[in-house]
Specification:
Layout (H helix, E strand, L loop, with lengths): L1 E9 L4 H21 L7 E6 L2 E9 L6 E9 H4 L8 H10 L7 E5 L2 E10 L4 H14 L20 E8 L2 E2 L3 E2 L2 E2 L3 E3 L8 E3 L6 H7 L6 H18 L3 E2 L3 H8 L6 E6 L9 H12 L2 E4 L5 E9 L6 H27 L3 H7 L4 E3 L3 E2 H19 L3 H13 L7 H5 L6 H9 L4 H9 L14 H20 L13 H15 L5 H10 L6 H25 L4 H11 L3 H15 L4 H17 L4 H5 L11 H22 L3 H9 L2 H10 L7 H19 L10
Antiparallel strand pairs: 1-3, 1-7, 2-3, 4-6, 5-6, 7-8, 9-10, 11-12, 13-15, 14-16, 15-16, 17-18
Helix pairs in contact: 1-4, 6-7, 8-9, 11-12, 11-16, 12-15, 12-16, 14-15, 15-16, 16-17, 16-18, 17-19, 18-19, 19-20, 20-21, 21-25, 22-27, 24-25, 24-26, 24-27
């Protein structure tokens, strides 16, 4: 067994391309080896801005030989009346590569057919790799590809070298104008000479000797340690930023941190602006002191060891000074404009061509948020704060700072609101209403922020649905799925529960949907959309799909308690006596449906005890009344396990009822009375779950 090593040497590849490309490269190569019947072990990837490398352990030297049976034409066609092989038999033997004498007749379900044993000798792995590796290289996906020279190949950046070795031997092939070999190269500045490998085992060590750390994990550790040491020398520490560490790690082949400083006058600008300017434009690390106060310095990561670090620092300082000066200018310009003046400017900013301006969106959000605030019963102060936050929520979009640093939207709104003397809850809500911004991101911390976030997201969802911009398949250009999940996560976190259909209706009303039929259809579409988001989140937690469907369809509005209900039903379903209970309920529902009614309609009918003919009817009714009371009490205290156990206790009474009477009696009054009784039973079950959706 040998180790396969493939390195693609290129010009500088964008940092964000590297890891996805390596993952795809490794997966594709492993797949191709498997398809080619080449036994192999695990793979490992290495990468820098100038090379993408995959190493595969324990690669077999050749394919295993394979013997297979090949079925040919029918025997009656393969041989003539004298038993001699026909032209069909000759062609079959020639195709399979066996002599005529090796052909046999095989009995199949369709009759007798010619058969031959085909032996396929395994080829040398190196021979197969000559075809596999070029295809694997060109199949590597990138967000954008480019061509160079007059070549008919594409890659993220021009390829300069290809190293391809199996153990100590070269896998020779040609790609474009390049030939594979056993040569790589060191650091482009500190050790640019070619490096010859005699074995794949030498790869990492020889690169390290040439100032290249190809192991991304090892390089990241070096970067973190060196940056931390430089920060300590400055008397501080860097702000935790795992993403920035990864970006810098993929920008260099050997990290050399260097400290720089900027004028203290820039510290009058909010920290968020300074940090964003350093991070987004230059990929610099901000430094804070032991009290988390921003210090007038930064750390840059060079890709080469400068002869004069002070001179290198001066270059970085010159660049960042221009960036910070711009930020200071924009910030000071923003301070000369009031928040309400910025709100008025939103009238000229289009939110979406069919949905009006950002100002109009803010007005709609305010009305939805007002309804939500009222439902919490927290008083007029909350309502006042919510309405003010809604008005100012988008005001920073027309600020100069956000125009230059778009990622600061919401953040600058909070800062400007605080400077203007707005209540702390209002200021915080302006930033928080964008949350969560990605999967697993922080949720709004304040109640005002939570309400505003829900209102804003509901407006976006309902607005897009109202003009036909509905997510389909993988297409979701307005991130409505993410916003729907955000609504659910916020409601769960804050314990907010309100009728979703009413909230959706309130939102759609803001778009002038006056046609009742059209409005009802849209309400159900949005409601189903949000239900699907709930189901998706619960499925990710590992709950059964049928249990999720049973709870969501019955208690979809009670979002904070949906998970608890699902968990309780999962426990009940796991009991050995669950199946008879589920069968009994389904029987209840099916009988009602066959009568031409639904459970809700049947439950509206009063039960007349005078019409009972069998003792099982009265027993079920009395049992129902007692259980119904206990279930209601359990639901009020959110004791869902107890509620389900109470419901399960009806099983025997239901079974005796079905054994004792014919529900569809000939006498209309008795039949109607029995259906009403079953309707009440179904309604009781429906308080917790739609048992008809459960698989027994």
């Amino acid at each position: 067994m040998n180790t396969l090593l493939l390195e693609i040497g290129t010009e500088e590849i964008p940092a964000g391309y590297i890891l996805p490309a390596l993952e795809a490269l490794s997966a594709t190569l492993s797949k191709k080896l498997t398809e080619a019947r080449i036994q192999h072990g695990s793979s490992q990837v290495y990468g820098t801005p100038r090379r993408l490398t995959v190493k595969v352990e324990d690669v077999a030297p050749k394919q295993p030989s394979v013997n297979s049976e090949v079925i040919g034409p029918p025997a009656k066609i393969g041989f003539d009346e004298d038993g001699k092989p026909t032209m069909a038999a000759r062609k079959f033997a020639e195709k399979v590569g066996v002599p005529l004498s090796k052909l046999t007749v095989k009995e199949t379900p369709k009759g007798e057919y010619l058969s031959a044993e085909k032996s396929e000798r395994g080829l040398a792995t190196r021979t197969l790799l000559k075809e596999i590796l070029p295809r694997v290289i060109l199949a590597t996906p990138f967000p954008k590809k480019m061509r160079w020279a007059d070549l008919d190949i594409e890659f993220a950046r021009p390829i300069h070298t290809i190293l391809a070795m199996l153990g100590k031997s070269v896998v020779a092939f040609k790609l474009g104008n390049l030939k594979s070999g056993r040569y790589t190269s060191g650091h482009s500045f500190m050790a640019p000479a070619k490096i010859k490998l005699d074995s794949t085992d030498e790869y990492l060590d020889k690169l390290r000797a040439a100032h290249v750390e190809a192991d991304m994990g090892a390089r990241k550790k070096i970067l973190e340690e060196r940056v931390a040491n430089v920060a300590a020398e400055l008397g501080g520490r860097i702000l935790p930023d795992a993403e920035l560490v990864d970006i810098n790690n993929n920008l260099v082949e050997y990290p050399i941190p260097v400290a720089g400083k900027f004028d203290t006058e820039f510290l009058e600008v909010p920290d968020e602006v300074l940090i964003n300017a350093m991070r987004e434009h230059q990929k610099y690390f901000a430094v804070v002191d032991r009290n988390n106060n921003l210090m007038p310095c930064f750390i840059a990561v060079n890709n080469t060891a400068a002869r004069d670090l002070a001179l290198s620092a001066t270059g970085h300082e010159r660049v960042i000074r221009a960036r910070l000066a711009d930020a200071q200018f924009f910030y000071q310009g923003d301070l000369a404009v009031t928040n309400d003046e910025r709100v008025e400017k939103l009238k000229k900013v289009v939110f979406q061509a069919k949905l009006g301006t950002v100002f109009e969106k803010s007005e709609r959000v305010a009305k939805i948020a007002e309804v939500l605030a009222a439902s919490t019963q927290k008083g007029d102060e909350l309502k006042k704060q919510v309405l003010r936050a809604a008005r100012l929520s988008k005001s920073d979009l027309v600020s100069q700072v956000v125009g230059e640093f778009p990622k600061l939207q919401g953040v600058m709104g909070r800062i400007y609101a605080g400077i203007a003397g707005e209540p702390a809850e209002v200021a915080a809500a302006i930033e928080e209403h964008y949350r969560p911004v990605y999967s697993g991101a922080p949720l709004p911390e304040t109640l005002v922020g939570a309400i505003l976030s829900i209102a804003d997201k509901m407006d976006s969802i309902c607005g897009c649905f109202s003009v036909g911009l509905i997510p389909t398949g993988a297409s979701d250009p307005y991130a409505l799925r993410r916003q729907g999940i955000g609504i659910i996560q916020i409601m769960n976190a804050k314990g907010l529960s309100f009728p979703l259909r009413e909230l959706i209706s309130c939102s759609l009303e803001q778009f002038g949907k006056n046609n009742a039929a059209e409005s009802d259809e849209l309400i159900e579409k949005v409601y189903a959309f949000l239900q699907n988001r709930i189901s998706h989140l619960l499925a990710e937690e590992g709950f059964s799909k049928d249990v999720i469907a049973a709870i969501v369809s019955a208690a979809g509005d009670d979002i904070p308690n949906v998970r608890s209900r699902v968990n309780a039903l999962e426990l009940l379903k796991a009991r050995p006596d669950f199946e008879p209970l589920a069968v009994g309920f389904k029987r209840v529902v099916n009988i009602i449906r066959k009568s031409g009614q639904d459970a809700e309609g049947a439950a509206l009918e009063a039960v007349d005890m005078k019409l009972f003919e069998h003792e099982s009817e009265g027993a079920l009714f009395e049992e129902f009344k007692a259980v119904n009371q206990r279930v209601s009490e359990a639901l009020e205290t959110e004791s869902f396990n107890r509620a389900l156990m109470e419901i399960a206790s009806l099983r025997d009474a239901v079974d005796r009822f079905f054994d004792g009477v014919m529900v569809m009696a000939r006498e209309p009054g008795i039949r109607r009375n029995r259906l009403a009784l079953l309707g009440h039973i179904a309604a009781l079950f429906g308080k917790v779950a739609d048992f008809s959706k459960l698989s027994a």
